Amino acid sequence: MVVESGQSRLTPVLLEQLRRNEITWNGLVKLGVIEYLDAEEEESAYVALKEADITPDHTHLEIDPVSIFGVTVSVLPFPEYNSSPRITMACAMAKQSLGTYTVNFNMRNESRAHILYYPQQPLAQTKPYKLLGFAERAAGQNFVVAITSSYGYNIGDAVVMNKNAINRGLGRSVFYKTHEAEERRYPGGQKDKFEIPPATTSGYREEKSYRFLSEDGVISPECEVESKDVLVGKTSPPRFLEEITVFGVTEEKKRENSLVLKSGEGGVVDSVLLSDSLDGT
User: Fold this and answer.
1) Catalytic residue of the set 38, 57, 157, 276
2) Domain over 180-281 is classified CATH 2.40.50.150
3) Is 270 one of the catalytic residues?
């Protein structure tokens, strides 16, 4: 809020109009009561935390003392009892915490997404945490931790996990990853094709890799796949219009160009979506 001559521009009259919904936030901005400051402007601003602290030298007044921090810091409990490096670390941890980032995640196709099975509210909550409604979209879980030695296994920040807790779903999450394939068009009228590659295709993989593909060359939902399994069967035209075979005969031989799961990956196919691109492919 803007301060002029040691007085806040937010007068009792405007406060009463706010309570009656006769004026909005945008209206206060247009009247010059509320002002947005960028990082450069903050360098030359003298901001008071409370109205009682305003002096003729002050230029601005915080809407609420807690808003001087960002969203991440304001949801951390007891920051005044922690050292600044620990608060910085806690901010990084809070931004990486897993939860339910959106309720329609099963209808979306994100490049990468993590969903925590059983998110919980923290035991210690700040006022901004409640005001922002984070409890409705909780992130993280409450772990019971015992600080004790266990035959040296906890050396170097290691932890000993309870197997029963893991089996009951402690920290369990699911990772979604979107794989994409496209039928491209090439000069000369040639194009890719989604299909189960014939055995005569150049670069043909073992038959086991194509076991989950439907007739159209696309995998079906709910298939449990592992590394090197084909998700989308695709053949592409040869790099050269005519290729000479071992018998000296020229022919156009298709290349195997399927979408394959990388080594070390595995999971279950959640959904399959087919669509047209902007160029009609």
Assistant:
1) 157
2) yes
3) no
